[in-house]
Structure formats: structure tokens, C-alpha cells
Amino acid sequence: MTRTEYFDDPGAPRPNSLVVAASAVVTDEHGRVLLQRRRDNGLWALPGGGMDMDDSLPGTAVREVREETGLDVEITGLVGTYTDPRHVIAYADGEVRRQFNVCFTARVIGGDLAISDESTELRFVAADELTSLPMHHTQRLRLRHFLERRSAPYLG
Prior knowledge:
The protein is an alpha+beta fold. It contains 2 helices and 10 strands.
């Protein structure tokens, strides 16, 4: 299913749902960040997705990383909360969501890197390569906050 992301766009469709979601900045032993190229929009993004009713936010991040990349991770920290009402995601099925995303940091503890049906490519990317990849503003914001090594999580 295709999706279109809008940010601060007066022409964006009006949201009809609010989704609680988690994402994770997973790093390897060289400090590179794991990214996936999304099948639904072709953009690079952190692994993540919506929380199930029987899950926690950290559990959601762990599950989504496993489902989307094949890797088992453990949560090591918090990058921040991302709730900007100007960020709207429209799906081909008519859902237009506002997302409440909590972004964690994580490290790999097992598994094997494997592309899922949600992505076309997976890569660990060095910080100096991030600007050359096509990605949505909201993903860049999370990565920037991670790379700033903030003493406190971003609250927004």
C-alpha cells in the first residue's frame, strides 16, 4: 500500500486517525545507523511502526525492528517523542494519520539482517552519508537529535 507524507502542507488531507508508534535508531559496532528503504514510498527511514494493544512502546520498537530487518535488539535509550500535528501520513486505503512516535536507541543482540515485505533495501549508514539519502524531514529530525548526543530526550 502506498503512502504519502506531508509536513506543514496546507493542501494535506485532514487526519482521520491517531497512531501510537515506536521507532529505533539501531547502531552497529562502527556507530553506523540501520536504515531501511521503504517499499511504500521509496524513502529511507528508521525501522518502526504502530503499537499493538497488548504491547509496550519499547516492545513495539523491538518487534518492529525484528519484523522489518530480521535483527534482535535491546533498547538502550530514548531519542525523543515526535508528535508534531503538521506531520500527516496518507495511505492509499483512505487512512490519514497523525502519528505519535517515540524514538528509542537500540543495539543488536542477535538475528540476521533480512529484507522484509516493507522494505527494498537495508543498510548501516555512516553519519556523513545520511544527507545524501532521500528521506522525509521527520526521519532526518530524529537522526539529527540522535547524532547531537543530547543530554535529555527531545520532547516535541
